[in-house]
Amino acid sequence: MLKKTDPSVLQSYFEDSSNLQGGHADGLFLPENDKDIQDIAKEGSSNRLPLTISAGTTGATGGCIPFGGWLIGTEKLNRIIEIDDRNRIAVVQPAVSLEVLDKELKKSGLLYPPDPTETTAFLGGTVATNASGSRSFRFGATRDWVKRLKVILTTGEILDIKRPGPLSASYPSLLTHYQMPAVKNAAGYYSKPGMDLIDLFIGSEGTLGIVTEIEVGLISRFHDTFDIIAFFPTENEAVDFAFEVKKHEALTLEYFDHNSLELLRPLYKQIPSSAGAAVYLETEINKDNGSTYLDFWAQILKKHKVKLEDAWIGMNNKQKEELRKFRHAMPESINEEFKKHNTVKFASDIAVPENSFREMFDYYNSELEPISGRIFWVKFGHIGQQHLHVNLVPRTQADIPLAKETIMRFVKKAVSLGGTCSAEHGIGKIKHDYLKEMYGDQGIAEMVRVKKYFDPACILNQGNVFPKELLL
Ligand SMILES: Cc1cc2nc3c(=O)[nH]c(=O)nc-3n(C[C@H](O)[C@H](O)[C@H](O)COP(=O)(O)OP(=O)(O)OC[C@H]3O[C@@H](n4cnc5c(N)ncnc54)[C@H](O)[C@@H]3O)c2cc1C
Fold first, then answer.
1. Does ligand 1 have an atom closer than 6 angstroms to the CB of 463?
2. Could you please report the per-residue DSSP string of 109-168?
3. Which of 86, 192, 391, 452 has the largest CB neighbor count within 10 A?
């Protein structure tokens, strides 16, 4: 197994898409098989050597960034082990990226439905964060598609965990009692009566073990899709439209507020000048609805007074790719914005129950409008699951505390409405306070108990999910 200590090599592992600075490590292991990982785990445990797992380094919460110890770079574990067309499953090593898997599946007309936006992410990273994407509106998150995991613990033990396989049957003492919100959620360890053991590992942000094999479910690729970006004069009209769409079957339902459109306008001068908000909708055309679907959506768009001549339509692949790029330009543009202001970005990842969405939405506006002079902000994202990303960019360094306080107020409000502080990005090293708002000291203590069971030396992915000081 290769080991590296050259600082210039290590440096490239100290950044993901969070703003977390100051990462450092003494070295990097590059395992090529389970035996290598068992050796690393045993060496780490006997020497109390902190180990941080690194995958595609696209995470949004600093989960893969080490603060001491050694890195485990998973990139050599990048084999597609099997694609079984008949049973519609794929078995992969953790460093297969979403884009590589998709390219391979295309050949047999299959699709892995979870579609996190950043396709250079590795399957291992997406399992560890329970990532989701715009099509989670229809297909759920990564959790819903993972059937089996092979996980190596820091004790060196190998677990082969299948679904179904109740946690209560194998580890009854590890049942937890805190209650997860009934919304899309990636905050903290999974906890539900009757849950499967595998669900404890999915979304545990690499704190319980190293995933070395993943079996996922697949579906047939779509016969065809029809995409549209519809523009509305006001935010309320766009939200009304989105809520109407939720009553029907769609693949993707995304929202862009006025500031998001302004941010994208230099790249997309064709955004109508009257647009106050937009909704991106992707629907499936199948053999049954093919002849009527256009009429169907045209009626709904008309009902909501969308000017069809202003809407952007994706009928062929080229048009769809243009619309996809527009949607993907949002996170990248906001990252450019904070670099321009030489500040940092504060990003919320909140989801709330459907009947609380409008209250949360109004709360965002009532808190954000008065501070517009000091903070640039955008609201965008997965309105289909009541999950908007509100990103704040302080205009000067002096306004960083204000941005921080504002996000904390959003988290408190969301929790009071039965929502989550993190619907898809996880807690990582930067959202510990938010998790505490959700589950309190008692809930966090239960998670720490689980962590100590699977990683008794407490060396793996220290600082993810909760502060490492709680493990002392
Ligand atoms: C432009 C952009 C758009 C994004 N859009 C989305 C989106 O739509 N939805 C979404 O959910 N996320 C999104 N993200 C965030 C990111 O892509 C996801 O969190 C992704 O799951 C991270 O995967 P990764 O391979 O990059 O993992 P990394 O960032 O390398 O690691 C993430 C975490 O997983 C752990 N880990 C990695 N591999 C393993 C393993 N084999 N065993 C155990 N633990 C492991 C790491 O230690 C770390 O804690 C976006 C990021 C960017 C930059």
1. no
2. TEE-----S-TTSBHHHHHHHT---TTHHHH--GGGGEEEEEEE-TTS-EEEEESS-BHH
3. 391
